[in-house]
Amino acid sequence: MKTTLKTDLTVADICEGFEFDKAENKGLFGWSGRLTIQPEYQRNYLYADANMETAVIDSILRGYPIGLLYFNRVGGRYEVLDGQQRITSLGRYIKNLFPIKDEGGHQQYYKSLAKNLQDLILQTPLTIYICEGTEDEIKAWFKTINIAGIALNAQEISNSVYSGSFVTLAKAEYSNSQNYRQTMWRSYVRGNLQRQEILQVALSWVVKSSEREAIDDYMSRHRHDDNIDELKNYFDGVIHWVETTFPEVYDEMCGLEWGRLYETYHGNSYDAAELKAEIEKLYEDDAVTDKRGIFEYVLGGGTEPKLLHVRFFEESVKKSAYARQKKIAEQIGKSNCPLCAQGGGRNAKKIWKYSEMDADHVEAWSRGGASTADNCQMLCKVHNRAKGNF
Fold first, then answer.
1. C-alpha span between 278 and 300 (Å, rounded)
2. Are strands 26-30 and 35-36 parallel, antiparallel or unpaired?
3. Whose CA is closest to 160, among 128, 136, 131?
């Protein structure tokens, strides 16, 4: 890859003709239209979210360097290879899209700055390396960079490596804050639109895997597709299934592995009203400590209580039950494990140590038994494990 140092361009030159797309939250063009500020393989604008854009302007006003910029030459035009966050911040400020605070703590938009400060910003020279190379060389280099301390995440890297029509369309659907459909997704999918996290979820669903290799393989195969129909239809199908299966939305639904749950359970028939009643019952049960597990629990027919992280008996309750059973057992000459006492084996009269016993629900938790003192009995570990069913 060939690089050429260029030091004769100023902030005014680069920001001439600057355009910013509010819908997609990205800088588009600069340098009188010759510079594409955010190629498709670049991430969306992050500095506004990270409160860093004001630091760029403050650095300029204080005479601090803002670092090297790298442009990629593509024919007679250029793309920002490294520096799009800083350039976008400069352009946004000059366009009066955000203020900074002066030394007195007062907000100052560009248009309200003193003329000498406006000129200081515009006349600041920039240090730019112009890079020329093949697409593979440019993108291999891009993968290694870290922009202003905000490291590229896995999906942003994949977007750069497999940039093309598919990524363009996918980002327009899943990384666009103006997409009205995102309000529907937000109940079920957690992630930062700007960091491509919703797109990553959608891809993981359609490939039925969260492994990066599987996602990258899919992106590679579809890189030049002129539609994202498969991705979109699958994602929408999962969301529709969740909505119809669980008409009422609960906070704990957001971020669950709905793609996996859809693949596992969407072939089953459910009564939404019955599921709702069971969910509400479990929400009211203080023994259920993981409300997020409720949804998979009811989808699976209530056969996996471990999903709920059911809280068992308090230590004081177990010790009280043990003392009570031991006292009675010694009085009648039977084992303090009720099930051992019922049998005629060698343990029928054995007094088990506390450490050799486990607490058990007399009436199984899965059948409505509460984790209370009057529903607690101590069983030897062998019988408790054999009894099961909570």
1. 12
2. antiparallel
3. 136
Q: Which two tokens stand for residue 331?
A: 């009085």
Token couple for 278: 């069971």
Can you give 144-197 as a three-state secondary structure string?
HCCECCECCCHHHHHHHHCCCHHHHHHHHHHCCCCCCCHHHHCCCCCCCCCCCH
Mind listing the pLDDT tens digit for each residue in 328-387? Answer: 999 999 999 999 998 878 899 999 999 999 988 888 776 767 778 889 999 999 998 887
Over residues 72-98, the pLDDT tens digits come to 888 888 988 888 889 989 999 999 989
Placement of tokens 């363009």 in the chain:
168
Beta-strand relationship, 2-6 and 128-132: antiparallel
Q: By three-state DSSP, how is residue 359 classified?
A: strand
- Are 206 and 215 contacting, i.e. CB atoms less than 8 angstroms apart? no
In terms of DSSP bridges, do strands 128-132 and 69-74 run parallel, antiparallel, or are they unpaired? parallel
Where do the H-state alpha helices sit in the chain?
11-15, 47-50, 53-62, 84-94, 115-123, 135-144, 154-161, 165-174, 182-185, 197-207, 212-221, 229-245, 258-265, 272-284, 294-299, 315-332, 338-342, 381-387
Burial (CB count <10 Å: 0-12, 13-18, 19+), residue 384: middle
Beta carbons of 340 and 383 less than 8 angstroms apart: yes
Q: Alpha-carbon distance 82 to 76, whole Å?
A: 19
On whether the pTM is more than 0.85, the answer is no
What's the rounded Cα separation, in Å, for the pair 62 and 58?
A: 6
Mean pLDDT of 248-277: 94
Between CA 388 and CA 207 the distance in angstroms is 37
